[in-house]
Amino acid sequence: MPRPISVRIHPEAVRHNLQTAKQSASGARVWAVVKANAYGHGIERVYPALAGADGIALLDLDEAVRVRELGWTKPILLLEGVFDSADVATAVAHRLTVSVHDDEQLVLLAAARTQQPIDIQLKMNSGMNRLGYRPDVFRAAWERARATPTIGSIGLMTHFANADDGAIDWQLDRFDAATHGIPGERSLSNSAAVLWHPRAHRDWVRPGTILYGASPTGAARHIEGIGLRAAMTLSSRIIGVQTLAPQETVGYGRTYEVERPMRIGVVACGYADGYPRHAPTGTPIVVDGIRTRVVGRVSMDMLTVDLTPCPNAGIGSTVELWGENVKVDEVAEAAGTIGYELMCAVARRVPVDIDTLAAAQHEAAESVTA
């Protein structure tokens, strides 16, 4: 029998979350962001749920090729653009739209030997200070791009530094001033701006983490009431039970001392599976549908939980580490990180299955209403 840990992917949750993003940014077209192998969910696994998107955005050329091979005919955006002439050839062959954030990339595109113009998104550094042309040179970069025969349509994009805490007007003002009078479709909004900043919606939006049910802020409470659904459930089982007396300790470092008689459940999941090693005592977890807490230090292959709230639990009891009942952001926040990291960090050794029943039910419902 295999070790009782698995991750379950819910494509219908992605479909639902995409629709939620579209409703939040009504009137804008949507780049569905699937970078990092769809935030750890698997591009192939979630691909059927992305049909309602107007385009797909990602970073890696191999992922872009995979999306084309899956049958995607609509635009694909390379968010970091191209890095050498071979990348340009691949972008042309697969009809990719490429981000351009510096003159070196413009030179690569100008040198391309192609009869088919390459569509680009010209990126402005409006204050994030990672990639992009600064506002004072952006117009000149656009003029060079417009004069390049191998470049087709030119979209305008930027990225917000702190849309999750509400302060984006300063970047919007910079972007609008620097692009005044420049034609081209605008793409500004990340997940946080999709949900909370309608001024930034413009022509295209780029939802990422919200497609998978996680919070742009890293705090689950900030998306309560929005209706996003978890697209990933990490689950396991209790594989051992210990009954401890007061003053006994749990796990490496003896970091948790029992204050009263307590049953401890041992869960087949540890940091080698992608669960955060720094998740402290008190991190929420669900056993047999009952919310309880992690106690002691997370080890490589196991962690321990307090079975006091679930007296009937024992060996074989089901455990949800994150999913619909315990949000990935709750676990991440307890561990001092964000849900993005945990979703991307699930280890390859964890078996993956797909919630095909929900997909079948959705298809059946569509056929009835068709």
From TrEMBL:
Q: Which residues form the Alanine racemase C-terminal domain?
A: 231-355
Binding annotation for substrate: R130, M300
Known pathway: Amino-acid biosynthesis; D-alanine biosynthesis; D-alanine from L-alanine: step 1/1
**Residue numbers of N6-(pyridoxal phosphate)lysine PTMs:** K35
The UniProt entry, under Gene3D superfamilies, shows: Alanine racemase (3.20.20.10), Lyase, Ornithine Decarboxylase, Chain A, domain 1 (2.40.37.10)
Catalytic-site annotation from UniProt: K35 (proton acceptor), Y252 (proton acceptor)
Top-level taxon of the source organism: Bacteria
Main enzyme class: isomerase
SUPFAM superfamilies reported in the protein's UniProt record: Alanine racemase C-terminal domain-like (SSF50621), PLP-binding barrel (SSF51419)
According to its UniProt record, which cofactors does this protein need?
pyridoxal 5'-phosphate
Question: For this protein, what is the EC number?
Answer: 5.1.1.1
* Any single Gene Ontology cellular-component annotation: cytosol
* Annotated GO MF terms: alanine racemase activity; pyridoxal phosphate binding
Q: Which GO terms describe its biological process?
A: D-alanine biosynthetic process
Q: Which UniProt keywords apply?
A: Isomerase, Pyridoxal phosphate
**Which reaction does this chain catalyze?**
L-alanine = D-alanine
Against PANTHER family, the record matches this protein to: ALANINE RACEMASE, ALANINE RACEMASE, CATABOLIC-RELATED
Q: Which family does it belong to?
A: Belongs to the alanine racemase family.
Summarizing the function annotation, the protein's role is: Catalyzes the interconversion of L-alanine and D-alanine. May also act on other amino acids.
The protein here is known as Alanine racemase
- Supply the source organism for this entry: Paraburkholderia silviterrae
Give the gene symbol: alr
